[in-house]
Design goal:
The protein is built from 17 helices and eight strands. Helices cover 44% and strands 4% of the residues.
Length: 547
């Protein structure tokens, strides 16, 4: 379904287009360095838009995962966790390298009756726009990237952007269902299967209906069955293994699998502990341990040089809540939520991202340090819309009436996620001893234990179990966890920040620094408490509870 070699060819033939967009466009006006419709092939525009869209989604998804403990947030408080400048490149990519390339392509596509080009572009633009709303709130749209003289586009209300996105999705579905004079040279998501594209379009609509509380529309679309229900139809981007000129590897793999060990991020202690203590079959696929001992864990002496917190006491909120602090047993070396310490010489000690979804190493307890190109070499995926996610969405809707009604959906969501993860890992890491992988009996035992705990729990406990299983399934895509956390405020028993008062939870992020500085119609937010239009819950810091 995905074609890595096509992607490699894309970057080679389309590299000039991507490079031309690397200048910082502060006001979203037409980029004078970009190719114009009279100079370019529509496939070049579509190629660039497809790849850059995956990078935008991957970057924002990492941020959503950070704040929901799927990944580690390396800041002691929320207001300073993500600076405005940190969003400059992603904002530029979203507007200049995704949306503008799509709109320039549209001119050629409409002239040539290239309806499938149009449809892919409409779907990707709708997804990109709604991501921007979910993370920033009101964003430029109505007069953004216009071909006229609008140098300072205004902010369009998020609700209006959502409505426009739904319109784009409907147009995409209509175009996918028709004929075209020619097909795209490269379809990096479904390899020319437009029925699958329609499933993805409808699944994106489900997300938007759920965010906006349009339960009637959600249920009506579910009743049609015309959405992603099988992992074979999952909407995801496939990365490659080439390390240089161009680097086609999964971005997180490229950052973490280095010659000096794990670079960049630490794995989340909350997620590793939750999965390890419940014998989750996905654990070996998500996390690769380089050692079997963590300083400060039971029976292991502390080490100030490699793990400074191993010599400190747990914060009061951790003690009171019984949360594991600093060190986990069995070599799960990571960090707690909000740990902003520097980087010690632990590159060959801390846990590395596993074989899913980054295509790193599978954890067969070999306890060998990672290296450049090890494991699956970075040929991982960026999950965008998954069948397991739809199961948890349905659980959420069902549980609004009766928490017990969510049980089958939670079970199906966990089972679907486990099957996808385990199938993804098989054979991807050639050095792995796959005889150590969980057996079907292990999977069955985990699913039955989760189901039993759910049915035996109180309403609050059921919501927490549902949320935890949902978050586990979202490794590699924090969008839906971030949205769910703001919609429902679960799980309530999530690990707190290390700082006793980390400030209000991020309801939306600061606008990018360049946009706020150079666009007279964008006023920077005073803090991160501004709620996106569909977030109607109580204001921070009382919500979410797990702050």
């Amino acid at each position: 379904m995905k074609n890595i070699f096509k992607y490699l060819r894309l970057v080679l033939i389309g590299g000039i287009l991507i490079t031309s967009c690397e200048t910082i466009e502060l006001d979203l006006a037409e980029n004078p360095n970009a190719l114009s419709p009279s100079q370019a092939d529509p496939d070049f525009f579509l190629n660039a838009a497809q790849v850059t869209f995956a990078r935008v989604a991957e970057t924002l998804g990492e941020i959503g995962a950070d704040v929901t403990r799927i990944e580690n947030m390396a800041s002691r408080n929320y207001p300073n966790a993500f600076s405005p400048a940190a969003f400059d490149l992603t904002w530029e990519r979203a507007y200049q390298e995704v949306i503008q390339n799509i709109r320039l392509m549209n001119v050629l596509a409409m002239e040539g009756d290239l309806n499938y080009h149009l449809a892919i572009g409409q779907m990707l633009e709708a997804y990109t726009l709604t991501l921007l709303v979910d993370y920033f709130g009101d964003v430029p749209f109505a007069d953004a990237l216009s071909q006229g003289e609008t140098l300072n586009p205004t902010l369009t209300p998020g609700a209006d952007v959502y409505a426009a996105a739904l319109g784009l999705i409907d147009q995409a579905i209509a175009n996918f269902g028709g004929d075209a004079a020619a097909e795209p040279q490269n379809d990096f998501y479904y390899d020319g299967d437009y029925d699958q594209w329609i499933l993805a379009c409808n699944t994106l609509k489900l997300r938007l209906y759920l965010n906006t509380g349009n339960i009637t529309a959600f249920n009506a679309l579910i009743a049609t069955g015309n959405y992603i229900q099988d992992s074979d139809d999952d909407f995801q981007f496939q990365w490659g293994t080439n390390a240089v000129q161009p680097d086609t590897r999964h971005p997180n793999y490229a950052q973490t699998y280095t010659t000096t060990g794990v670079g960049g991020e630490y794995q989340s202690i909350w997620l590793m502990n939750l999965m390890d203590t419940s014998d989750d079959p996905r654990t070996q696929y998500y996390f690769y341990r380089q050692t079997d001992e963590v300083p400060g864990a039971e029976g292991v002496p502390p080490n100030e040089e490699t793990l400074a917190c191993s010599l400190t006491t747990a914060p009061a909120q951790y003690v009171a809540g019984g949360f594991p602090f600093c060190a986990l047993p069995n070599g799960f070396w990571g960090r707690n939520h909000g740990n902003a310490e520097g980087i010690p010489p632990d590159g060959f000690l801390r846990v590395a991202p596993g074989v899913y979804p980054n295509a790193g190493n599978f954890d067969d307890s070999r306890l060998v340090g990672i290296g450049l190109g090890s494991g699956g070499g970075g040929a991982g995926i960026t999950p965008l819309l998954l069948s397991s996610t739809v199961e948890f969405w349905q659980a959420e809707i069902a549980m609004l009436g009766s928490t017990a009604a969510g049980q089958a959906f939670v079970t199906n969501g966990a089972s679907t996620s486990i099957a996808k993860v385990m199938a993804f890992g098989d054979g991807l890491d050639p050095a792995a001893d796959m005889s150590t992988a969980p057996m079907q009996s292990d999977v069955d035992a985990f699913v039955m234990a989760t189901e039993a705990a759910f049915m035996a729990g109180s309403d609050m406990e059921r919501w927490n179990i549902m949320a935890e299983q949902f978050f586990i399934s979202l490794k590699g895509n924090g969008h839906d966890a971030y949205n769910f956390y703001r919609r429902r405020g679960f799980p309530t028993d999530i690990e707190p920040a290390l700082e006793p008062d980390p400030g209000p939870f991020i309801r939306s992020h600061f606008y990018p620094a360049n946009a706020a500085t150079n666009n007279a119609n964008i006023t920077q937010k005073g803090d991160v408490t501004t709620q996106v239009f569909w977030d109607t819950n109580p204001a921070s810091p009382t919500f979410p509870v797990g702050n």
